[in-house]
Amino acid sequence: MHAMTLATVALNEVHPNPANPRYDLGNRDTLTASIKDRGIIQPLVVTPDPEGGYTIIAGHRRHASATDAGLTEILVNIVPDADAATIAAAMVHENTQRAGFTDAELARGIQGMLDTGATAAAIAKGLGAKRDTIKNLAAAHAAPEDTRAYLHAGEISLDQALALADLESKDADLYATTLAAVEDGQNPDWVLRKAREAIAKAEAVAQAEKIAADTGVTIITERPSGWDGKSKHLKSDEEIAQHHGQPCYGIYPTVTNDGEAVVQHWCTKTRAHDPKAETVEVSEDDKAERRRVIANNKAWDTANGVRRAWLTESLHPRTTIPKKHIPTLLALNIATPYSEEHVREAVRIVAAVKNGAWPGAEAHAKATVNDGATLRTHLLATIARHEDRVSKTVWRENRTGFAAHLTLLADLGYTLTPPEAHYVTTHNNGDHTATQTYTTD
Ligand SMILES: [Zn+2]
């Protein structure tokens, strides 16, 4: 800036600069009180306004407080020939000196400098910033007003503001729901990631639809497992070419881990390519496997029904628990909260008790559960917890806890059904259902 003239001018001749990047002047109580006491110590920097009076370059906050303090005159440094670019730059530079200058305000100042014709490179050099930073700030200033408000409030970062602006340009509805989620206090990075994935997924679907329209290939809507031996992700051009026109071939629109839209190529019936698979013999095996699964499901359903009828009709009406079950019950109570690890520990304790390795177990159980009614309640609650967790998954897999549960019921007088007995006797070999077919009689 050129030579300045120090002068005292009428306060009402000094006007705020409409391009001041600062959004608000903050709490000025202390400053106003100080100006009332001691007047303006540091002069404002102003420039003559062609329409009369002076426009502030630096000192908006002092000007506002001087007005509140009732001053009629004010000390200013007049810059005689400041052009728009100089003023814009000076306002940014002045504000970068103060604490609390937000990215939203800096963005507004940068845009003001760009508006006067300054280049991003020149601004970057003047501020000692990277050119990309200047470009990002300008882009943030172009963000929707509510995003800028969040940036100004410090609720979101500059990167998040840019991501929101980008989202708004692509999908206004998704932008609105994302911003609402941020307002609800959800993590901005998380909701932005979800939004980007949704956009990428829509892009992938659009790409897939175009391919389908051009080639007639089927679009797969749910991701094939790839691990079941029945489907295969086709990755090479050669594999894809071999599948063109075949009924097993489909495309699956999805999103990569990096959030990019992608259309995958899949063979959904790999067995159709296995010459052996087409023989009647193997196909009969498939049918037999299917029958076995259905039969097992029926057997398990029947077993569940039989067991629960016994629990209702025989166990629940009982008011006392046989003394010999106390250690087992204690162990099962140790097994809650239910987890495989706890259950294994419980099973170990039961074994220890049965082998006489823990003679204090009964006394310990009695000290923990001191009357028959409470003991009974504990028992029923323990059984109920295990029954709650019974599902086809439990039946198919090898769960120590379920086996221990069935063992307890058998101890209490329940006659295990064949699938239950099989479960109990094989629960440690890790492969109890692979080829076994249960019967219900
Ligand atoms: Zn195929």
UniProtKB/TrEMBL annotation:
The keyword Magnesium belongs to this UniProt entry's keyword annotation = no
Where on the tree of life does the source sit, at the highest rank?
Answer: Bacteria
Q: Which residues form the signal peptide?
A: none
Where would I find the ParB-like N-terminal domain in this sequence?
Answer: 7-95
Cross-referenced InterPro entries: Chromosome_partition/occlusion, HTH_ParB/Spo0J, ParB/RepB/Spo0J, ParB/Sulfiredoxin_sf, ParB_N
Q: Is the DNA repair keyword given for this protein?
A: no
Homology family: Belongs to the ParB family.
Q: Name the PANTHER family on file.
A: CHROMOSOME-PARTITIONING PROTEIN PARB-RELATED
Q: Quote the protein name from its UniProt record.
A: ParB-like N-terminal domain-containing protein
Species in which this protein is naturally found: Demequina litorisediminis
